[in-house]
């Protein structure tokens, strides 16, 4: 009996001790995740093998008189900021309606759950045509652990709140008057990271800026922007490319859109008079724009797609971006990797109104005529888009770029036998790299892909190259081929691009080049007889036209029509 009581007492004591110890460990863990920043302390959380801090303000709310102004540093806070909740997204349109808020200048920080310090920093900008998207674009668990890096993702103003070329908004401050408010947000957030990331275990002198799609195009803009000089150490551009807009021409397009609101609100009686009024320097116009509901502004360019002509942004103002854009001879030269897929246009083809309803009701496969048209735009749009993402940029930059340029092309997903029938129509689509970072990102298209040993090997090898690049600016991988720089000489020799493919068992990685030019693609289009002449004209002028990558195509067929 006594022995039983003693045993019971020991068990109770051990249980209490265990829970006390657990509580002490948890308390110590929580204390370790309270980090001091220049604005105050922030409380993080440990989850999925990461330490995370989300929604940290880096700027004041750009509302009221601050709507179209340079962002201001966030106000100081006294109590620890709760950085365990999801970040507030910037206001934007979505399938469910308008979401987010104007008060959205915040960032997330993720790092491996270890005690290492001085880790490389990957600063990431989301995609979405600079109109939508969020800092939670992907689950950073794989990236942070496999790259052994601190990952920073950022929210910044979008749409007509992030870019606005209307001159009546000018204040006399040249940086502010650029109209590139989103870039100014990104600069402030990057300054915040530079000043604070050491407290989170990151190296402020080893920051790699990166971004996907619109975020990648923003990164490209940062490479030519004087205001970003000496702000970062390396760059990775995922499906980006070179895009800028003329500010005065952009103001005309914005005025057309805003004029509709002015007529709706009774400011003017006709579209023409409202546009003239919007383009005037009347203080009444400025007052009107500042009092417009953010919802109206978030939805102003809902039909833009990936057409700069519909939502022009990244203005060549002469201060934030040079007047001659990417023709400049003054780059912020740092080692850069540019990434593309071979099937970059496939998702956009699916979303085009010509095909979207047939895809939605699964009738495309049985409509031979429409299916041929889909294959036509998918094929030539992807050939042009992938060329635009890497080779065009590299050729433009190279004469004036004083740092290594690397190019990589993803070919995974093109073989139905390997990666399944759901992925085959898309191929190596726009953003397929994210499926190598976040396994659930593009389900169910990538369901078969994620089951393959070859995908595991591809993920390991791609991340191996990237981890090396983050650490020292050279994408090396001891178990794989040497990734050579993009140079005209290597292009001529057939080894300027790293190609990444896979079979069911392993990755297939080798050096090659882009074997065609814009003119080659245009010749192929002219010779193509899978669609009728009338259909071809419609596809070229209604589906492929006005895209970021389609300028040579548009010029050719415009001249042909004369």
Lay out the secondary structure.
Layout lengths: L1 H31 L1 E3 L4 E3 L1 E3 L2 E8 L23 E2 L23 E7 L6 E7 L15 H6 L3 E5 L4 H4 L18 H16 L5 E11 L1 H9 L11 E5 L8 H18 L6 H8 L4 H9 L2 H5 L37 E6 L4 H6 L4 H5 L7 H30 L7 E6 L5 H4 L13 H5 L9 H4 L2 H20 L15 H6 L3 E6 L4 E6 L5 H10 L5 H11 L7 H11 L1
Parallel strand pairs: 2-5, 7-8, 7-9, 9-10, 10-11, 11-12, 12-13
Antiparallel strand pairs: 1-2, 3-4, 4-6, 6-8, 13-14
Helix pairs in contact: 6-7
What's this, in brief?
With 562 residues, the chain is α/β, with parallel strands linked by helices. The protein has 20 helices and 14 strands. The termini are far apart.
Question: Could you describe the 3D structure shown?
Answer:
The chain is of the alpha/beta class and 562 residues long. The N and C termini lie far apart (105 Å). It is globular, with a radius of gyration of 26 Å. The strands form two sheets. An eleven-stranded mixed beta sheet has the order 3-4-6-8-7-9-10-11-12-13-14, with helices on both faces. A three-stranded mixed beta sheet has the order 1-2-5. A hairpin with a 4-residue loop joins strand 13 and strand 14. Residues 1-31 have low confidence and may be disordered. Helix content is 39%, strand content 14%. The chain contains 20 helices and 14 strands.
